[in-house]
User: Fold this.
Amino acid sequence: MTKIINITIDGKPIETFEGRNLVDVAKENGIFIPTLCYFRDIPPLATCRICTVKLNGRHTTGCTLRVADGMQIEVNTPELLDNRKAIIEMLYSEGNHFCPSCEKSGKCDMQNLGYDMGITASRYPHAFSHKTIDFNPKRMIMESNRCILCKRCVEEVKTRDGKDVFSFVKRGVKTLVKIDYEEEAKLSESEAMRAMNLCPVGAILVKGMIHEEPFGDRKYDLVGKEVKPKLSGGGLVKKDPNEKFIVATTSLAGCFGCHMSMLDIDTELIDLLEIVEFNKSPLTDIKKFSKRCHIGIVEGGCANSENVEVLKEFRKRCDILVSLGECAIMGGIPAMRNFVSLRECLEEAYLHSRTSELGAHVIPGHEDIPKILNNVYPCTEIVKIDYYIPGCPPSAQHIWKVVRSLLLGEEFSIAHDEFKYD
Amino acid sequence: MFKTHKPDRKHLMEVLWDIQKNKRCIESEEIVKVAQAFDMSRIELEGIISFYHFYHFDDAGKYTVYLDTSIIAEHGGRQEIRQAFEEATGTTFGSVTPDLTFGLFDTPCIGLSDQEPACLINFRPFTSLTPQKVFNIVTQLKAGKRPSEICDVPKTNIRYTPPADRTVFFKPYEKFSALAALRDRTPDEIIDTVEQSKLAGYGGAFFPTGKKWRFCRQTPAEKRYVIANADEGEPGTFKDRVLLQTHPELLIEGLIFAAYAVGASEGAIYLRAEYMYLKEELDRLLVEYRRKGFLGKNIPAKTPFEFDLYVHLGAGAYVCGEETALIHSMEGRRGEPGTKEYFPVQKGFLGQPTVVNNVETLSAVPRVFEAGVENWLKVGTAKTPGTKIISVSGDCTNPGIYEIEWGTDFNDFLRMTGARDPKMVQLSGPSGVCVAVAVDPKTGLYLVDGQDRRALSGEDLACGGSFMIFDETRNILKVLKSYSDFFVAESCGLCVPCRTGNFLLNKKLQKLINGHGEKKDLHEITEWSEIIKTTSRCGLGQFSNNSLLLAIDKFPDVIDRALADNTDFNPAFNIETATAEYDRIVEEINANYD
Ligand SMILES: Cc1cc2nc3c(=O)[nH]c(=O)nc-3n(C[C@H](O)[C@H](O)[C@H](O)COP(=O)(O)O)c2cc1C
Ligand code: SF4
Assistant:
């Protein structure tokens, strides 16, 4: 009844029946097209996009492709392989996937594909989406943090009178799967189990059915231990070889902890002073720049207008500007006030605090004193920053290494232990 | 409620509209009732309601204001209008006044780009708004006037038509006259003529209309459908609105031709809710066509046929302009595009072969028969005969509608619009292409991407209808961000590259605008866009980053300025703005005490 046809997949000639599904045909011929939404027994959903292949030069999904005579299909070109990997990485960035605590870990199609493709980190930044966990249904838990919106449950799980138990609600990035409590309660134990098994990830769980299987082995943290930072130039150029490198430091909205840590360089300070001369810095108590500097090291972010001025001055006077510590990098502790309105902050500090005078009524405001900014800003939001030294505070060894390598133009590797703060 | 509607899924959206209009929201009690009547689960219904942004779960106010957010509105002074509404009503956008009188909401382009800033109040249009006008409107509404009494009639602003013998759309038409052609032609002959006319989809894809009809006719089926796509959601496009305002009869007759040709017995006009004010006239016309015997049973033709037509109202979802999404929406489902396993002409509405055509395409059909193929082919270019309706908006003296012959020179056209110092022109809306415009110092002519003698035609710049002009002073990155905001808001959410990829790209654009961009970001934008393009299911995702990529290429100076590497100081940080709040607080508190 069905016609025998010839197609090629990645150049390999294949004989099959007309109208069959490409994913199945490929599999039978030893070519694996990964899928997350496609499930053999149900009509293709084409939501996950991972099985994207090229048919006669045009992109299409394998799961919706019915083979016909003469088709030339590409499956495993470098571009298509990378697309697949990208989609999985994007799914990881979109949701909140914590495999170590997931009940389906080891039985999860997405985790499986992640390992298979050698994904250790996502190329995309985390989307920080707000997702919910719904414990209300009678038998099930809907863990939206893990849901990849493949739509299997929506299309496949129905009550006996044909009503949908799951549905997509909202649209775009806000789309999520919700369970109808009333209809869910009508499902039998085995129907609920089918829903859980249908879910390619760990989003649909049946209560009481968790942690039954042991976790699989995970190879986390193996790659990425040795990170080589790239230096843009080949070391700093001094006009006169006998001249020392000139360094300036300052503490803006910080606690001086980073400077303290700097002093912990200890005996190596002596080595440092061999090659370095400090200009403007709290360490030397030089208040004003007297020469152009090779490196400026900034602790703390900007909380007031003076901080901004100093920071800009540093940018103007220094060839390389380094953010030292979390407050400089991301605002840190002072930035916690960004979640409270400025008015409340000022009133709390000057009018209603325990130490303010009874009946205090004035908030200091004079042209000679710095103005408080509406938010605390990390340094990068105000000037260009060339390098960052993370930590709270960064360890002395780490600071020393960075400074020395910057001055001498050496590459160095940061050991995982040196910058992990957990 | 259900007396007027048989609970057939295709009436679901209409039922929801009735509730929304009467109760200003669709509350949970109503959801339970409707779900029961249509025999579906409550959550499925919630899924449908939440897909369309004109349906609300909470009271949307006695007067629901939808203010256009498009970039053209923004450049036309939208912020001022927004403020005026907030002051006049005492509430903020995205919320409703405590007494539930006014609800203020943002909405993407409402098809009035030539008379921005504009808004809809209870789906009545108010155009060319000024803050003063807004205060007047609100005062009158508070005094008990109805929006329908005080609304504007949108101007048609038809600025140009070719000489009478070369005009296709905007010239007088005698109702029913072209339908005479049905009497001496078989359906196949009708399709032949349409094919010979080389009529191709004006909806943007330029698919040959005759071929589409033939496919549909050839698919064996019990029933076939024809649908007019009047969803016109592409920002900056308003040509279909003007066609419906001036010549709705052409569309209806186009549908009758299509129905006869493919053998369809039922049809619909999928009208976007933003054009609700055009529905009355369409419904009235349908009654007239029925009375005259051109709709209903036994429509006069070589082989008399049966065909009827209704207007289906959308509910606010750009993606529903995509034909398979449109069909799902008409079936009373979430307007998600289909899997693309079949074309609508194979399996469309209710699983039957269906033709979906743009309003302009269908409106051209009676004109083809009126003119005769030979005359028709004399106008326009070889590949694209005929004319094209272009909606012009943005920085020019004469925004509005231009019917031009295909093949019109770009420079001539741009002069005609009275463009002021154009820097960029966006063709076919955000999903289309952007071109860089500059004056050739030697000839004084406008160059497109550095070339002269470019033409608007199927062979060269195939404009789908939207023509937005941006002058020297406009921030191109902000224009691109506005496109991106649109796609993020309108993605249906099925494909991860489109829903999350665009969301992440949107953040990247903001980073560029803030002046934090790095070279690496540009590489990532290019790479991510490519992935979104090749792996998304429908045109929305596939074309969402066209303009972004083109702009990076065509406006290197703009992009360079946005990179943090090239500036020591971050242009996004402004010390005055950052300290303004402190000054205000200090002054206020100290003044209060005095
Ligand atoms: C996201 C998206 C939105 C669309 N919006 C519209 C629209 O508003 N109006 C329209 O006629 N076509 C729109 N289209 C194109 C339709 O899918 C379809 O191609 C068109 O209606 C066919 O009619 P035509 O052949 O007459 O052009 C859209 C396509 C996509 C992918
Ligand atoms: S590309 Fe975007 S709009 Fe189109 S189907 Fe996918 S998610 Fe929906």
Remarks:
- Residues 245-408 of chain A form a domain with the Rossmann fold fold (CATH 3.40.50.700).
- The CA atoms of residues 120 and 220 of chain A lie 8 Å apart.
